[in-house]
TrEMBL record:
This is 3-phosphoshikimate 1-carboxyvinyltransferase. The gene is aroA. Its EC number is 2.5.1.19. It is found in: Cytoplasm. Belongs to the EPSP synthase family. Keywords: Amino-acid biosynthesis, Aromatic amino acid biosynthesis, Cytoplasm, Transferase. Phosphoenolpyruvate binds at K19, G91, R119, Q166, R343, R385. NCBIfam families: aroA. Pathway: Metabolic intermediate biosynthesis; chorismate biosynthesis; chorismate from D-erythrose 4-phosphate and phosphoenolpyruvate: step 6/7. It comes from Diplocloster modestus.
Length: 425
C-alpha cells in the first residue's frame, strides 16, 4: 500500500476496543460462572484467536461484532481441546493461556505462527514449572509449540526479571488453581488490566507497589464488561496530528489507565498540545476523548519505569522523534527485540531508508530529529505496529512510501487505513 504527503489531518475518530482488555474479557469470562457480555470488543485477529481457543475448550461464545457473549463455565469448566490450540500471532494469548492451562487437569499443546514460534516462552515456562506444571518447549529452544500438563499447583512468590503483564498475568491465572496464595514482584509496574478485571469478577487480588498477590479458588461471576478504546491504536493518530502542520483531531473514548498512558506523558514532555475531555471511569478503567493539535516538538529521553507504560508505542514514538528538534534517546527498552519483530532493528532500518538520523543501541534507539524524510519501500516484517507507524511516517514525507504486507494491521486494528484516510480528506 502506498502513502503520500498530506496537508493536514482533521476530524474525529473512534479507535477500536483495547486489545489487552478484550483478550482478558474472553479468558476471564470463560473462567467465570454465567454470561459475560463484552461491548466494544476488538475484532482483531489476535482477539479472534483467543475466542477460538476457548471455543475449542468447550466454552460457548457468541460473537455478534457489537457484543461478544461468553457463557462461562467456572474455574473448572474447560475441557481438553481435540487439536493443538493455535494462538496465531498473539503473544498475549500464548502466555496468558499457558497460565490457565497450567491449572487444568488435562494435557494441551499451544502453537502459533512463525513469529510466535520465535518469541521467548522461558519467561512463563520457568515460573509455571516452579508452581508444579509440566510445561515444555517442544522444539527445545524455549519457544512454542508448548506442551502443558497441568494440575497440582503450589503457590509461590515469583520475582520476575522482566516487567511484563503477560508474565504477571500467567502467574496470577495459574494462582487461581494453586494450593495457597501466589505472588509476583516485577521490576517495574506493567499494565494492570488483569488485576482490575479479576477483582471485578470476584477474585481476591491485592497490589502493593510492583507486587501483586492472589488467593486461589475464588468464585468468579460473569458480568458486563465495556472495553475502552485502545490507546496503542490511538497512538498513530496522536503522532500524525502532532507531526503534520495544521492538524487537529479528536480521538473518542480512549483508555487512559495510568499503566498505559506513557505516550501522553512523553508527548507532553516533548511540547505536545493534548487535552482530555469527557473523562469517564468504567470499573477502574478510565477513558477520555483526546484532542490533539499540531505542535512544535523537542527531543526527550524515554527510559526507566515509564517503558512498560508505552512499550507498544515506541515504534510510532521513534517516528515522532524524527519530527522533533534535537535528540531523542530511548533506553531500557530491550523488550522491543522480542515482539512480533525485532522492533529496534526494523525501525532503524526503515527510518534510515527514509533519510532519518537514527542509531540502534542495545536497549533502544538514538534519534536526531529535524531532517526531512522521504518515501521508501518499507518491509513491515508482518508486524502490525511497524506497518501503522510507517503509514503515518508516509503522510509526513516527500515522495511515495510503500508498505509491504500492509494488511498485517488486521492483528490489532482491521479498519486502520480507512480511519486514517477519513482524517486526511
Ligand atoms: O498483557 C498484555 O496484554 C500485553 C503486554 C505487553 O507485552 P509484555 O507483557 O510482553 O510486555 C504488550 O507488549 C502486549 O501488546 C500486550
Ligand atoms: C506485542 C504485541 O502483542 P502480543 O505480545 O500480544 O503479540 C503488540 O500488540 O504490539
Amino acid at each position: 500500500m502506498n502513502f503520500h504527503k498530506v496537508h493536514h489531518i482533521k476530524g474525529q475518530v473512534r479507535v477500536p476496543g483495547d486489545k489487552s482488555i478484550s483478550h482478558r474479557a474472553v479468558m476471564f469470562g470463560a473462567l467465570a460462572k454465567g454470561t459475560t457480555t463484552v461491548t466494544n470488543f476488538l475484532q482483531g485477529a489476535d482477539c479472534l484467536s483467543t475466542i477460538s481457543c476457548f471455543q475449542q475448550m468447550g466454552i460457548p461464545i457468541e460473537n455478534n461484532e457489537s457484543e461478544v457473549l461468553i457463557h462461562g463455565k467456572g474455574l473448572h469448566g474447560l475441557t481438553r481441546a481435540q487439536q493443538p490450540l493455535d494462538v496465531g500471532n498473539s503473544g498475549t494469548t500464548m502466555r496468558l493461556l499457558s497460565g490457565i492451562l497450567a491449572g487444568q487437569e488435562f494435557e494441551s499443546v499451544l502453537t502459533g505462527d512463525a513469529s510466535i514460534q520465535q518469541r521467548p516462552m522461558g519467561r512463563v515456562i520457568e515460573p509455571l514449572s516452579q508452581m508444579g506444571a509440566g510445561i515444555i518447549s517442544i522444539p527445545g529452544n524455549g519457544c512454542a509449540p508448548l506442551q502443558i500438563t497441568g494440575g497440582g499447583l503450589t503457590g509461590i512468590h515469583y520475582h520476575s526479571k522482566v516487567a511484563s503483564a503477560q508474565v504477571k498475568s500467567a502467574i496470577l491465572l495459574a494462582g487461581l488453581y494453586a494450593n495457597g496464595p501466589t505472588a509476583i514482584t516485577e521490576p517495574q509496574l506493567s499494565r494492570n488490566h488483569s488485576e482490575l478485571m479479576l477483582r471485578m469478577l470476584g477474585a481476591q487480588v491485592s497490589s502493593q507497589g510492583t507486587t501483586v498477590s492472589i488467593q486461589p479458588e475464588p468464585v468468579l461471576t460473569g458480568r458486563p464488561i465495556q472495553v475502552p478504546g485502545d490507546i496503542s491504536s490511538a497512538a498513530y493518530f496522536i503522532a500524525a496530528a502532532l507531526m503534520i502542520p495544521d492538524s487537529e483531531v479528536r480521538i473518542r473514548n480512549v483508555g487512559i489507565n495510568p499503566t498505559r498512558d506513557g505516550i501522553l506523558r512523553v508527548c507532553r514532555d516533548m511540547g505536545a498540545d493534548i487535552t482530555l475531555e469527557n473523562v469517564i471511569d468504567t470499573d477502574g478503567e478510565p477513558a477520555a476523548d483526546l484532542i490533539v493539535r499540531h505542535s512544535r516538538l523537542h527531543g526527550t529521553v524515554i527510559g526507566g519505569s515509564i517503558i512498560p507504560a508505552l512499550i507498544d508505542e515506541l515504534p510510532i514514538l521513534a517516528v515522532l522523534a524524527c519530527f522533533a528538534e534535537g535528540t531523542t534517546v530511548i533506553r531500557d527498552a530491550q523488550e522491543l527485540k522480542v515482539k512480533e519483530s525485532n522492533r529496534i532493528d526494523v525501525m532503524v532500518k526503515n527510518l534510515s531508508a527514509m533519510g532519518a538520523s537514527i542509531r540502534g543501541t542495545e536497549d533502544g534507539m538514538i534519534i536526531e530529529g529535524g531532517l526531512p524524510l522521504h518515501g521508501a519501500v518499507i518491509d513491515s516484517r508482518l508486524d502490525h505496529r511497524i506497518a501503522m507507524s510507517f503509514a503515518v511516517a508516509g503522510l509526513a514525507s516527500d515522495g511515495t512510501t510503500q508498505i509491504l504486507d500492509s494488511d498485517c494491521v488486521k492483528i490489532s486494528y482491521p479498519g486502520f487505513y480507512a480511519d486514517l484516510r477519513k482524517l486526511t480528506l
